[in-house]
From TrEMBL:
Subcellular location: Cell membrane; Endoplasmic reticulum membrane
Classification via CDD domains: C2A_C2C_Synaptotagmin_like, C2B_Synaptotagmin-like, C2C_KIAA1228, SMP_ESyt2
Annotated TM spans: none
PROSITE patterns for the chain: C2 (PS50004), SMP (PS51847)
Protein keywords: Calcium, Cell membrane, Endocytosis, Endoplasmic reticulum, Lipid transport, Lipid-binding, Membrane, Metal-binding, Repeat, Transmembrane, Transmembrane helix, Transport
SUPFAM superfamilies named in the record: C2 domain (Calcium/lipid-binding domain, CaLB)
Domain SMP-LTD: 5-184
A GO cellular component entry from the record: plasma membrane
Residue ranges annotated for the C2 domain, each copy included: 183-303, 328-453, 605-727
UniProt keyword annotation of Nucleotide-binding present: no
Membrane topology type: Peripheral membrane protein; Multi-pass membrane protein
Annotated protein name in UniProt: Extended synaptotagmin-2
Amino acid sequence: VHFPDTERAEWLNKTVKQMWPFICQFIEKLFRETIEPAVRGANNHLSTFSFTKIDIGHQPLRINGVKVYTENVDKRQIILDLQISFVGNCEIDLEIKRYFCRAGVKSIQIHGTMRVILEPLIGDMPLIGALSLFFLRKPLLEINWTGLTNLLDVPGLNGLSDTIILDIISNYLVLPNRITVPLVSEVQLAQLRFPVPKGVLRIHFIEAQDLEGKDTYLKGIVKGKSDPYGIIRVGNQIFQSKVIKENLNPKWNEVYEALVYEHPGQELEIELFDEDPDKDDFLGSLMIDLIEVEKERLLDEWFTLDEVSKGKLHLKLEWLTLMPTAENLDKVLTSIRADKDQANDGLSSALLILYLDSARNLPSGKKINSNPNPLVLLSVGHKAQESKIRYKTNEPVWEENFTFFVHNPKRQDLEVEVRDEQHQCSLGNFKLPLSQLLESEDLTMHQRFHLSNSGPNSTINMKIALRVLSLEKQARSPDHQHSAQVKRPSLSKDARKPSFKPQVPVSPPADSNKPVPASPVIDSDKKTDMAEKSQHPNASPQWPTDLSRSSSSLHASNFTYSPSHLSVKEPTPSIASDISLPIATQELRQRLRQLENGTTLGQSPLGQIQLTIRHSSQRNKLIVVVHSCRNLIAFSEEGSDPYVRMYLLPDKRRSGRRKTHVSKKTLNPVFDQIFDFSVSLPEVQRRTLDVAVKNSGGFLSKDKGLLGKLLIPLASEELAKGWTQWYDLTEDGTKPHGAS
């Protein structure tokens, strides 16, 4: 294949070959000095983890082609795209002594397009201030393991699989994660440390027409309809629409908002599938160059689907510019109807960009004279994110980026809490009304903020900026028939079919009055729950973020994260959990309606759960006994495979999750399992116990899902004595009341 703008660069391959032994030395240091301590600190079970051998092999990385961008780039930067291939016979051996576990890697293959940005260009040697490296889209990654089954038996890793691990690794390589290497000491790295997106793409995923009918009857003699849904990708942000049953002209009317960091190069990719019990059929695809959308500002068109014989898709795309002034804010709030409602979510009027630098003089936490393991919880409205943990320090340096979509900055607050991960206690907090940013110069604040409920001189250093999302419509004459440039796919349909059914959370539908943007599935800052594949919007980073938590203390590689870049940081496409996105609740309501079918279901349609709850002041723990459930609903013809999952809110980390065993094929399971949470009595009375009864199903099975929920506020004076009670399960956990 000949790409006219991509050039061969054999001189570069000869240079890399000469440098390869030294590159290998750097990689070995990275493994030993950064990755090894990060893995050890990520989980108590991994405290004896070590690399026994690291040999990257003699075969150097190859650069198959180089493209240099000369248009649509800043004059102070150089953008290169390198098509790289690495096929290495590595020997990387690791060991977890505590579990007598040995495993390793025999070979690694990686193929993809790496973007290298040289910026800022400066008038002194070495002319380039810094370079940034990242992949625009997920590279093809293959790892040949030895002893992987031993590794996955270790507690803390048993929710993983080889495909999940590959997803974790490859997504750490994709934008917005980037490695920034400063080349001069005094360079102004502010813009590199504070990456402001080029724009926000608002995608109205409206409807399709004339799709192919994939469902057949009577062994294919009768053509049926399809159950279409769409998967939308921008970089590593992934959204999935709801499924419209048996309709070749589906109307979704959903809205998504995605950050665009890089163009040229980033595209809007859409694939339509027909949902099937086994493997979903492909209904067509579309790729749209975002440069065209930016030029037009607003596109409302029907696009013909590629790779299929028929079908077209109606999209409305808005390119929103990030404005550093608030003069258009009232107009924007009116346009998204945020000026009248009191909600904290809906379409976004602004973007909050936050650089978390460091904290000073933090208190010692629960133990006097001991250094805490601080992390920061950040939240705006219902959306929350969590920083990495810094171990054993009261002067932590994070150097992390976060972004939040904001519905109405006049009414919403940024809440910041520093917590000690080791003792699960607060080290200080503060609340910043976003209206203060509206009064600041350039809508930006860069200062040390004093922490309340903390030490006398405890401060946290952050740079916070608000950017108003403005759609600058261009007047077009009626006869102007511009159409966005649609890229033709280079992969065949078969080569690109998903290896398993993507099950990402479905967005809330956008009604005509107030469209609600769906949360993207890929967010680096959200925690993954491997075993359940459930996700909560306020969840904080879990595995694999744990793995990388200290890895970005390596100053040369400043990985940056963005909240709206969800989930293919999630190793597997996650089924939306109970509260998070409405899909689980919607499914449950649908199932209830089917069960009801004109009859009255009675007082407790989802069944009940019996719990004993008490606080032991002697052990300083909340004790919860899960006794049994009765009259659960059947998930399939064979009944249900229930288990109980608990969190002590607001803690949704993996370490805070408690799970019973799975009881097979029963609607009246008996568990009789005791669980505890380390928490003081005054603290626990401010917390809520989140209990979900779930259906287990097989790995990646469709029969996973919610059987019922329960939220129990623990602000009771009876907690020290304790109680045993039957509770009604509900669809979303609200209004729990004791049955007996």
